[in-house]
Known about the structure:
This protein is mainly beta. Helices cover 0% and strands 41% of the residues.
Amino acid sequence: MPLFPTERSVRTTPEGLLWEPSERWVRGRKGGVTVVDSRHPVLVWEPGVPVPLYAFPREEVRTDLLHPAKNPPTGAHNGSQIFYDLEVDGETVENAAWTFPSDDLAGHIAFEWFRHWDSGLDRWYEEEEEVFIHPRDPHKRVDALVSSRHVQVEIAGTVVADTHRPVLLFETGLPTRYYVPREDVRLDLFEPTDHHTGCPYKGTARYWTWRGEGKVPRNILWSYPEPLPAVGAVKGLLAFYNEAVDLVVDGKRLERPVTPFTATLKV
Length: 267
C-alpha cells in the first residue's frame, strides 16, 4: 500500500482566524477541579498573535462552572461578543473563557492561557505532560545543536563572550540564539536579577543584567538551569538577545534582528 504525506489542515475563517483540529488529549485545571477534558481540541491562531491557543467543543467543557461575564472586554479576541466568568470553589476568574464570532468555530469555547497570569486556568496538560505559557505550535520546530563556530559577543564595545564551543538554538520564526559555556562569558560584568520567563519548548529561564556603562536593556543575558529534554544541550549555558548586543560569528559581524522581543527590550 503506498504511503502519502499527511496534509496540513489549517483553515481560515472569514474573520481572519486560522484554525486546525488537534489529536492531542488536552486538560485544563483550576485548583483541583478539571474544567476542560478534551480529546477533540482545535488550535486557533488569532490575527497578529504569534502563538496559538486552544478552543474546545462545548460538551468537553464544564459549562456549569461558566457564567455570562459581568464585565466583558471590548475588541478582545477578534471581536468576540460572548465572554464567560469562571467560578470554582468560591473563586471567580473574570473573562476566563469566550466563544469566537465565527461559524467555523461555533460550539467551541476558548480559554485564557498564561499570557494573562491572573485570568486563566492554573495548569494545562497535553496527554500526561504539563504545558506552560501557551500551547505548542505543531508548525514550529526548536533544535539545539552543538557547534564549533567561533562566536563573540560585544556590549558597548566590550567583548563579553568568546567561544569555539557554542550550542546553536534554531527556533522557527526567531533568529538563531547562540548559547555559550559559562567559562567563556565575562559573567563578572553582569549581576543576577529576580526576572524569570517560561517557554513551552525550553523551560524556565533566569536572567542577568549588564553592570557596565552604555544604554543596554535589563535582563540581556539568560540561562536555562533545567531545560526541557528536547533542548537539553543548552543546560546551564548563557545566551544574549541578538536584538541588543553585537554578535560576531566566524569573523562576520551580524546585523541586529528585529523580532517580537525588540519592543520589550527596554533600557
